[in-house]
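User: Run a structure prediction on this.
Assistant: Running it now.
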Amino acid sequence: MAVWMLAVCSGPSVLCGSQSVVANTNASNFGAGSLTLYAGQSVRSNNGQHRLVMQADGNLVLYHINKARFSTGTAGSGANRAVFQSDGNLVVYTAAGQAKWNSRTSGNYVARLVLQDDGNLVIYSSITLGQALWNSQTYYSGANLSPSINHLVTGNNAGTRIIQPAYPTADIVTVDYDAVTNFGADNTGASDASGHINDALNACSVNQGGTVWLPSGKYLLTNPVVIPPNCFLRGDWQDPDLISSPSGDNSYGTLIIAKVGSSNPNRSDGGIPAFRISGPGGISGVTIFYPDQSMNNIIQYGYSIIVSNWSSMPVLENITLLNSYAGIIIGSDSSSGNGPHELARIKNVKGTVLGYGLTINNSSDVDVIENIFFDSKYWSDAGAFFNPQSSMSINAYTLANGTAFSFRDIEQCQFSQIFASNFYYGIVFNPNNRISASAEFINTNITQCHMALICYPSSLDDRWGLSFAGGTLSGDLWAVYNNSAGSWIMGNQTSIVGPTYGTIADGTTYPRSSSTAPIPTYPLRSSSSVPRPSGRAFRDISSYNVVRIEVNSDGWIPTVDRDATPGIQQALNDVAGLGGGIVYLPAGCYAIATHLVVPANVELRGAGTGPGCGGGTTLFGFEGESSPTRNSDPALITLNGNCSGISGLRIFYPGDNYLNQTPVCFPATIRGNGSNVFVRNVNIIGGTIGIDFHTFTCEQHYVENFFGWNTSAMIYAGNGTGMIRTVHSNGDAVNRASFGIQGWNVTDERTSFNSISEANQTFILLEQPTTGTIANGEILTNVFAFGPKQGVYNLCPNTQVFNLGTDNLGGQVGSASGYNIVATQPITVVNTSMTTGSGPTYGYAPYGIITYYNYTFTGETGNSD
């Protein structure tokens, strides 16, 4: 990004490189009408620590050092300049003069815009710096501050609280900002709400992350809503399949009325969306409706939701696309030269789409996609308010023009429960630009299409190809057309109805499809299957004298002299005494000098809504470093009682520098002791054992969305029946979340980090129960590890795994290591892919039995039953 600096020239001070005139020589203080910033230009505060930049992507951003503290949320809008007008209004314009954001301060002709040394951008009412009309809420607590600031949390500016949505949810809902109550968004659909919602999201971003609530109602959008990193926009979602009588307009919960303008979704940027997500942000619980769409006059709108390139861990769930032309696109076509995305999490998307449903491009790490339904019924069965069109007319159009799922350059992505009917193309794999694709599918039903599955030349990776377990691929022109030379498609117990071309295999003709016994039932996630506290008490840490440290990119670490442990523990104990509920840690960093105990029926919750790589709420762990008794020492966090849990947090061990190739060992990070203990949306970097649900009996334990890198094991379980969903281990997690700490940010994670895990890490260790017997063992879904010593080590009876991947395994030939699966008890695996790295084989079963439904691998040798 080019940055234009202020310089003093003859006459008035000017922004060099443009015609914009600055009225005085103070680089941070501007009168009304005296400042215009074009793309690439910036101004600085007097102390040099804060910078206001008009970026080339259309976003006006305020930085502290290199960390964004405020933005107008106009990235991708086409904006090219920011103007502090003569009427006192700060406005972001496109080249055509369309306003994309404004400060709502017009009518103040003697106002001044000041970028203060405390980091706050303020519009004052007069030359004498009178009343503050608007500010970015980005002030620090003192002047002349160093890049790393300690903040004592004396109040939560967001006003976080528990709310009760109208429709059932899997979790207790906490919100930091209410776009209606706090920011004036109209929830009747009468006036444009996009600016108000963006304001709420910007405030959330300034506070380093959290949740913005859109309560049930109707919201008119005439401009895109941009969701910044570490922010989550959450609505009140009614599953459209549960609406018994959709005759009215209020039965969908949070309804988005999209009038954002038509634009071709085939543009390189995906067109004009209703929502754009950047970084580890997310959206949940909205129904999107285009009131001007009809089958008599089809408008090719851009994608309803666009996830930007380079985004890591975006979360999209509980979304209805009522009549979108194009639904969701993640990542751009890699031929454009833009960077890949990573670790997208997409669950529960339903709707009618006319042109394109879900498009995923350029994934450099494993996406997880679950429960996606595209069908004409969602629009045709809607109430009169939604101008429902007949299924016959919708199906005729989508059969002639529609593509339900389009993929390019995706790496080992994991799919389960995806459905589409009456499209020309059901699933398309396009020719690669960066890397050939590979994927695993469970219960995929593509029916009544012309081409159910088509793979163009050079689209698939010939090491793994595609694995389908169960479901149906039905097409009258082609059920399966595989034109990617050297690759193959496996369809174990997948009904293929229609003509086929290319290499296709099933369990009766191809050994890699293996078992022909009935495929185990895939475990669906429901609101009732996710543990949570029954109490509704709530405490944030504002009254507990806890130090919160600003997340920064300068490598500065919270230290034990700023120990947050006593205050957080007191809050946990207080909530337990009130019958259970939630203790909330706002976004920021907290030093945990000793350890925490989460009592029964209490949840320790951070600001994260997914296992994000940056920002949000982070705990820094110190206790037990290199302890000789670490296996019996207290865990950093103990879930001590039934229905105790942790969610929305990153946990980081700054004392473990892996460049010396000798891991520093710690006690377990999270240890369970009770039934229905749970871990959701958590990221652990640098621990020894991430989650320990074995030392104590943990019946019905639950893990979902767990990411990171731990030297010995990501998960140690098996002492009680449990569910483990969506887990990812990768040594590059250290780079993704190391805060720029000197000596950590290295580019060769294979040498620096994965060589350690290849020698030491068992990705998921399922040990024998210590007491009693287990009738129904562990269930694992959508789990993947890069660079472990071995994948799943199973000593627990009756284990089932759905979609398992390992890459670059370590270990030595002749030992029970270096294997995708080691089993001394029976284990059933539905879809697994593997590369061996230096390890010898895909499976090792010295005493147990491994039952495979589709296995793909390189380096095929060794022992498997």
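Helices lie at 194-206, 377-380, 391-401, 565-577, 733-736, 749-760.
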